[in-house]
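Subject: Re: docking follow-up (adenosine-5'-triphosphate)

Dear J.,

Thanks for your patience while I sorted out the input files. As discussed at Tuesday's group meeting, I've set up the holo structure prediction with adenosine-5'-triphosphate included as the bound ligand rather than trying to dock it afterwards. The sequence and the ligand SMILES I used are pasted below, so you can double-check that they match what you have on your end before we go further.
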Amino acid sequence: MLAKQVRHINDVLNYVYGTEPLRLSGVDTCIAESWRRCVHRHGLNPEEMKEALILPDSRLREHQEAIGDFTDIARYGLQALWKQIRDMGYVVLVADADGVVVDSLSSDSGRLAWKQAGLYLGALWHERQNGTSAVGMVLETGEPAVVHRNDHFDATHIGLSCTAAPVFDSQNRLRAVLDVSALTPVAAKQSQYWVLQLVKHFAALIETAAFIRNHKQDWLIRLGHAAEFLDVTPEYLLAVNDEGNITGANHAFHQWFARHAGKSGQTLIGNGFERLFGQSLPELCGIQNRRPTLCFDGLTLFVGITPPPRKPAAPSRNSTPLPPELAKLCSPDSRFNQTLQRVAGLADTQVPVLINGETGSGKELLARAIHLSGNRADKPFIAVNCAAIPENLIESELYGYAPGSFSGADRKGKTGLIQAADGGTLFLDEIGDMPLYLQSRLLRVLSEREVMPVGSIHAVKVDIRIIAATHHDLQANIAAGKFREDLYYRLNGLNVVLPSLRERDDFDYALQTVLRHVARNNGLTPKPVSAEAMNVMRRHRWPGNIRQLANALEVALHSAKGAQIQPEDLPDYLYAQNRPSENPSALTEQTQNSKAILQDPPSLQNALQAAGGCVSRLARDLGVSRMTVYRYLKKSCPR
Ligand SMILES: Nc1ncnc2c1ncn2[C@@H]1O[C@H](COP(=O)(O)OP(=O)(O)OP(=O)(O)O)[C@@H](O)[C@H]1O
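The structure tokens for the complex came back this morning:
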């Protein structure tokens, strides 16, 4: 035992038993309370030093499975936080409500040292196990904590500096703890207070992202004391179901409610929104020209409301016929047709539509069909690929510029794409790739409905309908600080998710439609597809979706000499992978790779580590089920 550890043990004993209280008068009250809890409640003895306990892999997996997709949601926030502090020698950890580290990000160098210190996957940081630690204190108190060097109860950990903040779920249960720790901390505790602000900020972002994800079928209510900040960083979040009952609230609102309603003994979850606040959501939605407000206990809060995506209506025999452009996209998939019905119902309105889907899944085709189905059909449809315009040109391309506003500019000035869409539709493709500073400008255009060309002092009014599309998960981008939440709410009037080709249960129908389409565009006769060729295509994963399928069918139509399209008429990448003589099990390249990883224990362990120790994520990466991953893990580690 080191001399400084002996000194620390004496200090803790003296402090807890009160023989030398003055000597450590610098100890924070919350740390002192934790030390007392360690001794009196948890029965810990500072003389019995214990290294951090690391759970075996099987137990760790149980904790990771129990926390479900929370770690997936949290990961974007974790990575964004990690990027900011990785060069300063910190490790970032997420612990579950039992104090078990279920996800972590650290530099590769010094992994052994992180593990020995317990700053590692599977480590258990609960006060009753390890004494005072940042994770342990957050779990005990529900409050953020900085536990710096000698603040730790157990002298084993006095080399560490740890800062942690809680993440609550919408029922106000402590779901996880976000922690940032260093092995070789700088001397002063005060230096950790900026880390504390960072950790609190990211914990709040993760909490909001998880809230939005878990309540995507509910009405989302944002509340705050300042109207201007409501869309940027809402102080409070509420979720309300279609029956008007409150189904969730963020931690800040639970606390606010307890302060203001505690005396009347009212409950929050399950209570009727209208009963509690005296106004219904449809009433609040109907308020025009000003921010709606709510009064509660004599206080006024500004309100922002996002309705849930409308649930698919029950199939109805007398659903209205679709406009021809949308009808062209119809398929045997009834869910998709209901989506088209909803889109058709909004074709004549200015309600913004946000289309999500992988590349080539038909986002632009759908956007054009919406435009052509509405009362703007004879006005321009301007498509802007936000990812394709060089950053230095995007501003002048979108907003235009005044005559002579910069060197190299056209003397007469230039009309921007937004103005060019006046009266019609502006299609913002790849909106998730738009740089943050342009997002703020776009937000102003959408709020004010006017553009200010570069170098001009006069704003120009525009009348546009916005349709945006992206392959990104924008909520994850919001959590990672890459996309503005207020812009997201502006764009997301109606959300349409286009399934990838491999997820569609109407693949055969889609193939026939695309085949006819390709034949018509190339002046060819659509040939039938043989059963073998059909099987080859059904098995492929189609990362490029309909665009890739269309290209493959174009190749096949040009190559087919017989009456039918055969496997050998398909592009090489499809045919080669499925040639029966060379590849009897007809595995795709991806499944072969996955199999190689699964069957080689070191590769499997590496892949698991790369997936942050999360079996679900690894299973997704390998394109196999979770059970398959477990089976191989068990084989590779039979104990
Ligand atoms: N339902 C369909 N029927 C026939 N062809 C289709 C269909 N959907 C998409 N396509 C074709 O697939 C190609 C890709 O479609 P589109 O450009 O709309 O996809 P996208 O999702 O916008 O792609 P990206 O994200 O890469 O811009 C186009 O050539 C389009 O004509």
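A couple of observations from a first look. Residues 329, 357, 359-365, 429, 471, 513-514, 517, 546-547, 550 surround adenosine-5'-triphosphate (CB under 6 Å). The radius of gyration is 29 Å.

Let me know if you'd like me to rerun anything.

Best regards,
T.
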